[in-house]
Amino acid sequence: MNDIKDRLAKLLATENITVRHSASASTASFDVKDRVLTLPVWKSLSQQGEGTLSESDATDVYDLLVGHEVGHALYTPYKGWEQAIKLDGLNKNILNIVEDPRIEKLVKRKYPGLRKAFLSGYNSLMKLGFFGNLSSWDDMTVLDRLNIHFKGSAAMQVPFDDAEMWMVDGIAACETWDDVIELTKKIQMAYADLIQKSQQRMDSITSGFGDSDEFGESDMPGEWADDEIEVDTSETLDGDSIDTALFDSAADDVEDSEASTVEEWEARKQELASKEDRDAPFYIGIPKPVLKNVILPHKTVRKQLTAILEKNFIEVEKDMLESDPGYREDFNNCTKTIAQAEYTKFRNSSNKIINYMVKEFERKKAADEYKRTSVDKTGILNVTKLHEYKYSDDLFLKRAIVHDGKNHGLVFLLDWSASMHYHMNNTIKQLLSLVWFCNKVNIPFEVYAFSSAWSDPDLQGVASTERMARKLAAPNWNTKHGEVVFSEYNGFKLLNMLSSRQSASELNQSIFNMFYIGYRYGMRYGRNLKLGQFELGSTPLVEAMTAMQEVIPNFRNYHKLDKVNFICLTDGEANSSFDSVLNEYEVELDSAKHKGYDRIPGRAQVLFDDPRTRKTYDVNQSKDSILRYHYTGTNQVIFLLNVLKDRYDINTIGIFLCSERGVPRRLLEQYLGWFSLNRDKHKAARKECKDSGFVTVRNAGYDEYYLVPTGSVQIDDSGIPLEDGEGANLTKGKLKTIFSKSQKRKFGNRVLVNRMMDLIA
Prior knowledge:
- By secondary structure, the chain is α/β, with parallel strands linked by helices.
- It is built from 25 helices and 20 strands.
């Protein structure tokens, strides 16, 4: 039935609602806040009852079931239903019989393609015995006949006498919920005596599809179920004066009457709901990060990191004296004085490339402005050109209109995992060049290092139980029912290392801190660097991408940006992934209540309906024959990137740092397919890597994803590579070639800064 589900979902999408098919649902529900309609997954009806249905008839029945549930979800007011049954004393069976034709009329009006499905579907269900024995009208009450009349075709010719036609006409004329309430009251009063005197099966054929159980207190999940009903019970009912006591009595009698056919219908209907449909998708939600707990502010980072590094400088001086002579030279280069000198040297050498970038940026920006400029005639005469009226039509003053350019900002996400220490020196140098460029041309920026090893210094020495209790008291995630669950016990944190919001002195200090970290990790014994709570950990990329769902819009709104450029740099795949969602139950364990979780089925199609964009996402990328074999965390990162781009229209750049020697075949196979089956693609990628220093991938979620050998991010600030006396023997042409190659090497190996300059410009 998947094709039927898809077709009907597209039909319903014209209403701009999100449609979910859930194997765990036994009835329809509608989230009025997020506009999410949840429908049961029904089994095939080709083998139901005593007969069989053709494929076409089975399709019509399925569309009927869905269409009817959609009608109730969209048009039957939950609060109104509750008030009518519980407070006004209306009989639920009569109310259903009046309400069903109204909602079906409205849903068919919205979706004309359902008209045939309703007619054919009901006829098929009646033939299969879903409404009991219809062989004799004499055995039916007027309510039974009303129900069959509005569900069946005109060919059935359900009989009504003159005294009953007012009910037929009244039901057919109902357009609003108020119309339904008024007519139900009149029918209930008209047949109150009959109800009280006879114990006939007044509810023998109720609206099977709109049965009150669908709208009872316990069966209305989502936003409807959470709303409280505030009704003044002393208020009189609208319309004719009605004896409430008689109402109650009549309702009780109907409730106590036989309902064998209702029970039969409910049993048949429950059989239709598939509870173990492996093909049914599993829907998830994305939790909202609590940014005040997730982000360590730049002021805190700068203050704590400066204190930690000052302590390292002291320890280096001590190690210099106590270490073996073989280590002493390395430690000597780690002193604060030497580090500051190296930093100044790097800063000065970077000025050339920064100034070049600024010049290119301004040139490209001016060219873009020229393209956005148009000339418009004002309609005001240019009196200086009146003498040209005989041979020129250009007699009006002109004005240049420069159409608005886009105001850009940059958010940088840096992998703070242990394996990054191999690449940290050159990576940070690339990053700092980019930061200096942004700062010089007044482009807002934020640099976050995502870590799994953050440990609050205030919790050091605190017992583990107390430490866990404090973490739960300040959670990273605001997780609701149905949303994926991230552990609150790990050390996930976004470390705001650099920010355009910092003052000049604060930014300079933060930049030096980052430079020194890279500088130390670039040395032979760099791993001896002690960073305390800032120690490198694993790669919580899934958590970081989820947090970006709130970080990026906050960044954009704060700086009033038109466009956000997002760069993520990592040397590994996400080392964690979500596998559970929060359910609505609590589990008692160790005399304490804990939140309950549902595992995401391993074989199910996992979908996310974004309430913001109304788009549906395949979390596991199962439609892509290549990406479906990714590590789960990688697929989840791709999914979250797609959500980011669709929500906020951002530019996304990903940089994956590979080994020194090149891009491994294993990594290429993840995005290009097996080598043996895609030799041409792999050959082209190898050529691109040789020519440009990296491989560009288009199916990794990013707009551009670069697989970069670590050699391509090394900063070369040396001069022309000539040995002593060699230059004197070279021709001008040879010197020019060497110089050109040297400049190309110095400028071209800055993969990050060169690409981002183009992107921002």
